[in-house]
Design a protein that fits this description.
Major role in the synthesis of nucleoside triphosphates other than ATP. The ATP gamma phosphate is transferred to the NDP beta phosphate via a ping-pong mechanism, using a phosphorylated active-site intermediate. This protein has about 140 residues and is an alpha+beta fold. It has one domain: Alpha-Beta Plaits. Strands 2-3-1-4 form a four-stranded antiparallel beta sheet. The chain starts with a strand and ends in an 8-residue tail after the last helix. The model has no long low-confidence stretch (mean pLDDT about 100). Bound molecules: ribavirin triphosphate (RTP) and magnesium ion (MG). Ribavirin triphosphate binds next to strand 4.
Length: about 140
């Protein structure tokens, strides 16, 4: 297994409910190291560009609106097998399907207000990390 980095976002529904620390505790307990982190307010343009892959989906406008409703916390997480490890600890997209102990089972309100984002492949992780962070902002 290789040491990987993945991009994590603590979404507006979670920052609004003051859950950043509790979510970070789940990540850290799973062995994911937070090697960069910042709280930012996404613009509509930024959120639209970040989710461009979903532009044709019926939920796109609502997804973009939900991502700019409150600040988000963007993070780089590092671990062996970080992409898969993070996806596992986030749980299924729809919290109704999420396994016990996962972030989405513990905290998500709905499929849209599902508290966290995580890169779904190593290649996407590299692009998504570069979207938010300069290499000089990441400290392992
Ligand atoms: P994410 O990208 O946020 O880590 O989540 P994911 O891979 O599990 O889900 P994805 O299919 O990439 O969808 C991105 C986000 O869009 C919202 N969504 N809404 N209303 C719907 O049917 C629907 N489907 C997806 C979710 O907030 C999901 O996290
Ligand atoms: Mg996704």
């Amino acid at each position: 297994m290789a040491l990987e980095r993945t991009l994590s976002i603590i979404k507006p529904d979670a920052t609004k409910r003051n859950l950043t620390g509790k979510i970070n505790a789940v990540f850290e307990d799973a062995g994911l190291r937070i090697v960069a982190q910042k709280r930012i307010q996404l613009s509509e343009k930024q959120a639209g560009a970040f989710y461009a892959v979903h532009a044709a989906r019926p939920f796109y406008a609502s997804l973009v609106a939900s991502m700019i409703a409150e600040p988000v916390v963007v993070q780089v997480l590092q671990a062996e097998n970080a992409v898969a490890k993070h996806r596992e600890v986030m749980g299924a997209t729809n919290p109704a399907d999420a396994a016990e102990g996962t972030v989405r089972k513990l905290f998500a309100e709905s499929i849209e207000a599902n508290s966290v984002h995580g890169s779904d492949s190593l290649e996407n992780a590299k692009n998504e990390i570069a979207f938010f962070f300069a290499e000089t902002e990441i400290f392992a």
